[in-house]
Amino acid sequence: MSSKFVPENLPTSIQHYIDGKFVDSVDGDTFDVLEPVSNEVYVKAAAGKKADIDLAVAAATRAFKEGPWPKMLPRERSRVLHRIADIVESRDARLAELESFDSGLPITQALGQARRAAENFRFFADLIVAQADDTFKVPGRQINYVNRKPIGVAGLITPWNTPFMLESWKLGPALATGNTVVLKPAEFTPLSASLWAGIFEEAGLPQGVFNLVNGLGEDAGDALVKHPDVPLISFTGESRTGQTIFGNAAPYLKGLSMELGGKSPAIVFADADLDAAIDATIFGVFSLNGERCTAGSRILVHRDIYDEFVERYAAQAKRVKVGYPHEATTEVGSLVHPEHFEKVMGYVELGKTEGRLVAGGGQPEGFEFGNFVAPTVFADVKPDARIFQEEIFGPVVAITPFDDDAEALELANNTRYGLAAYVWTNDLKRAHNFAQSVEAGMVWLNSNNVRDLRTPFGGVKASGLGHEGGYRSIDFYTDQQAVHITL
Ligand code: NAD
Fold it and tell me: Which residues act catalytically here (predicted)?
């Protein structure tokens, strides 16, 4: 392999994991997995289809019906989840190395994501033992209480951006609440997902509770969505895929949680702390290679500070260090896959006709290969431009001026998406009023993307359906049966 860095002991194949065993596809089919620096095939992964999903769902159904997992005390499940967190934490460097190699994420950022995966398990391990449910008494007449129950086999379908961490965000609550699962990870990045099986075995998760089927979305993903014995689908991915899944799940009336795409605005008012706003909006769209659902990929700037902002922002974007994913100084690595690279480069070329290019605009010097893209900034982008409206999911940002608060709000809300918004102002009233009017599931005021795991996570409009995070995840993965007793 011509890549500059190859981790030691890479697997020689990536298999499914069904009922406690690593297995190939029933039909023996595989697909190629590329690493994004050389774009060479480094491993083949089992290409799951309906027959493999059927086996995985059968194993998960058996594990759910026969137990012990769904019937264990929350404290017992919690212990297993804490052990999972301990193991993930103790292997953070190896996980980061593999994730960075497979996805092109800068190694330091992949390390942060591995630790967050451990934290997700720890969080839901704690939450489930603290879970309290409602009881109501009507004196002399009735007692009513909530009997919370796991639902069954949860189908988890995940994307290729920060794959291991996003899988943990679903696996943690699904398992904490006593469900059994079938995970279908993204086909671009199956490497880190294949490590869950060993981690879970070591932590003592009973056989059949966790099942993994690799494969393409339209094969394995589709079969999972259409399986009649899978009552829940938690999906993270593109809005268009979400629509397809929504339609395919409709005949079964499945529970759906959808975390979809975004085109989130960062609004910088004239009274903002400009240094902080520039640092944060640079991080907001260029960290994780711009492959971040909550990326602040549209920056709206008050006209009074517009020219200064654009000049300083472009200068800083040019200083963002593009490099090999495995190098500790790298801030933007390689995009995940040549197909995605082509898509992002298509938007870069389109941007040259829709805005004023002030930084980047192609492959960075010295990195004219693989899937590297220079941090790219377009100014003077009109709201009807495609680069203003469509999710690019790469290190590309559009900057647009506004004249007053009303126009800022109109521009902020002028896309089909509504995932996140970032507001920069020192006027407290304006900040809160704007936050309440902006169409976004999550708003950060003078701050960046950090959040408490108890808060709701999710989007409005085309960015999602339902919320995860804290008790909302527990609610999604459980039934709340009401029991009424006459006194
Ligand atoms: P994608 O929609 O192409 O794929 C996501 C997953 O769905 C993959 O596992 C894929 O195999 C599967 N899939 C594809 N077609 C399917 C079908 N017909 N039936 C069932 N499964 C199918 O998304 P992606 O390109 O992997 O991920 C990037 C997208 O994810 C971006 O739009 C990003 O904004 C979004 N995202 C959202 C959040 C969030 O929390 N809102 C987080 C991360 C990523």
Answer: 259
Q: How far apart are CA 7 and CA 101, in angstroms?
A: 7
Please report the ipTM that was assigned to this predicted complex: 0.97
| Residues linked to residue 180 through DSSP beta bridges, in sequence order | 153
Determine the residue of 184, 188, 191, 236 to mutate for testing ligand 1's pocket, defined as the one with the most ligand atoms within 8 A of the Cβ atom. Answer: 236
Distance CA 264, CA 392 (A): 11
- Round to whole Å and give the CA distance between 104 and 102: 6
Cα gap 179→169, rounded to integer Å: 14
Residue 233 CA to ligand 1 centre (angstroms): 13
Share of the chain above pLDDT 90, in %: 99
Q: Is 35 a catalytic residue?
A: no
- Is the CB of 393 inside a 6 Å radius of any atom of ligand 1? yes
CA of 485 to the centre of ligand 1 (A): 45
List all residues 6 or more positions away from 75 whose beta carbon is below 8 Å from its beta carbon. Answer: 129
pTM to 2 decimal places: 0.98
pLDDT at 33: 98
**Alpha-carbon span 163 to 348, nearest angstrom:** 25
CA Rg value for the chain? 23
**Residue pair 107/330 in contact by the 8 Å Cβ criterion:** yes
Give the closest residue to 415 by CA, choosing from 395, 439, 393: 439
State pLDDT tens for residues 341-386: 999 999 999 999 999 999 999 999 999 999 999 999 999 999 999 9
Q: Which of 259, 331, 391, 439 is an active site residue?
A: 259
Nearest Cα residue to atom 34 of ligand 1: 261
φ and ψ at residue 18, rounded to 5 degrees: -130, 125
- CA 392, 167, 287, 289 dihedral sign is negative
Mean pLDDT to the nearest integer, 392-404: 98
Rounded to the nearest angstrom, the distance between the alpha carbon of 154 and the centre of ligand 1 is 17
Q: State pLDDT tens for residues 314-329.
A: 999 999 999 999 999 9
